[in-house]
């Protein structure tokens, strides 16, 4: 046999395999893929079989092929019971409720609202899993009891303060039971209703309907206030048990919208016992929905008129149309009357109209104003509250040495000639270019302003953290900031008002918007006179201040020139709005040379929340570092000035004229006693004996200077950082 043939026969299969290797690879790949698919199907069938074989509870215990201990979810970690009591009834109810909660194996804490500081502690309830119960009594004239007064005041202000917002307490769960007497129909359970409303406005979630206990056994729903509480307690404990299990009971309560409530059953006597509120998500998704439910038709001013969305009988259609026509005629007649007196500024009796209309009074009162007469107001500054508690003063304390806890913020004129985009009051105050309203006397305005201010200070008696010495000092007004709102210089008797202030040894800080140059020239000496310089060009000023005067720019420049003629302390007040007025530094420098002020305050704008009247957003608020950079660049263009002080917390810096730098030390503070001596001499001489800004200066402490480690915060006080989930807004 030929050896070569044997070799060929042996190698020919290998050659065939080599030639067809791609088909072999393809076959292997197909086989592997098929095997993988089969395995996946088998495992999926096994998994379905297991799911059908094991109950749900057993499946939750299976992890990676072995049984593990499952961590039990905790939905309620405890209950905190807060009470505000005058006679001890609410405190007794708190003890009874605590015993019922303990029976559920839940920890419970009973807290007297008098010993509780909501500013520091309430935000902690957002992240905790506690349920907070508030047992609050209504005292004289619908006011809270003394022990709950501070808590209610803080809660009310927080609910209306844009700095807190509508989600400040989101995550907190609460329930409210109010104690009252229906014999006082207009104030029945007012405190309980308000606490319920304010908590809801801050984003907290109500777990059960508000309970209302009635001391009047005749009208009490269950025969006595104790029985009312027992019925509500039963509902609360039932809901608490459901929360423990992670369940949420469906609401059987009414639907609340825009401050009015529609119950399935009308009237407090007919309402279903223990009816719960609607689901939280339903509330949050309903725009402008109010949190509280009505316990009677009178509570919300029940009307006989049918809702627009209700079904109307055809037979009643004619009556409804007649009623609508009558309302239309009355409205047209009212508009005609209004137009007749609009231009004259007088009412039907020929008298001048009051500046504060009923609607305006309601709006300003809701914002915390204490209104005086027909055109004035006073309000407690948040820095006054802060310094009373030893938590620091305002930038005026840092720059000029005022005692913030002794400063009264007021205005003799709520009207203004501008509609600034950064207006703190969202333009709820009236506007005008001249005084056309009836006028109150300055003696009455000052007297009531001081009385109202003192009453607001007195509300801080016993508040946690208030320093007793400062509380007593705060009752005596030493400074008056005429910068609350509006244009104080519009008031025809402004000079008389200032004279009365100085007679009471009260210093005066007056702010004007630079639209009344004649009034500035005629103004008698004040401790410190401010002019707001909100922009450096005509176009920017029109955009930011939105003045009512057509010749606003000429008035603006004339006001600065009038300021230059003043001998006492003068200040330019610059409010920086990012992307609107932070450019054109050279134009600002020219305005400084025009008015030659003693000081220039530069402050970042404060965002005051959303408003249909302004397009301002948080994007327009400059960082403190940006304000510092602006000031550094501006000072380079005005050689007679230097940076003197800083108040970081208010996002504010002070530029001072070099004449206030004596030697190497700054003297920007004010000798208030010396000023009172000088102004008295001025008055006694009939205005012939004048004085200048340098005559009543005081040395500025080191901590207030720009570049100091304290950044303008007085080391005598303790810096307080609000515990909030969101980043704090710059500004004061």
CATH structural architecture of the domain at 368-704 = Alpha-Beta Barrel
Stretches with pLDDT under 50, minimum 5 residues:
1-8, 53-71, 250-312, 336-344, 725-732
Output the CATH homologous superfamily of the domain at 368-704. Aldolase class I
Helix content: 25-40%
Largest sheet: 10 strands, mixed
Counting DSSP E segments of at least 2 residues, the number of strands comes to: 24
Structural features, described:
With 732 residues, the protein is α/β, with parallel strands linked by helices. Among the domains are: 78-245, Flavodoxin domain (Rossmann fold, 3-Layer(aba) Sandwich); 368-704, TIM Barrel (Alpha-Beta Barrel). It is 37% helix and 14% strand. It has 23 helices and 24 strands. The protein has a ten-stranded mixed β-sheet, sandwiched between helices. Strands 3, 4, 5, 6, 7 and 8 form a six-stranded parallel β-sheet that branches. Strands 1-2 form a two-stranded antiparallel sheet. Helix 7 links the parallel strand 5 (130-137) and strand 6. It is globular and about 120 Å long. Pathway: tRNA modification; wybutosine-tRNA(Phe) biosynthesis. It catalyses: N(1)-methylguanosine(37) in tRNA(Phe) + pyruvate + S-adenosyl-L-methionine = 4-demethylwyosine(37) in tRNA(Phe) + 5'-deoxyadenosine + L-methionine + CO2 + H2O. Residues 259-269, 316-349 have a biased composition (Basic and acidic residues). Residues 243-349, 710-732 are annotated as: Disordered. This is S-adenosyl-L-methionine-dependent tRNA 4-demethylwyosine synthase TYW1.
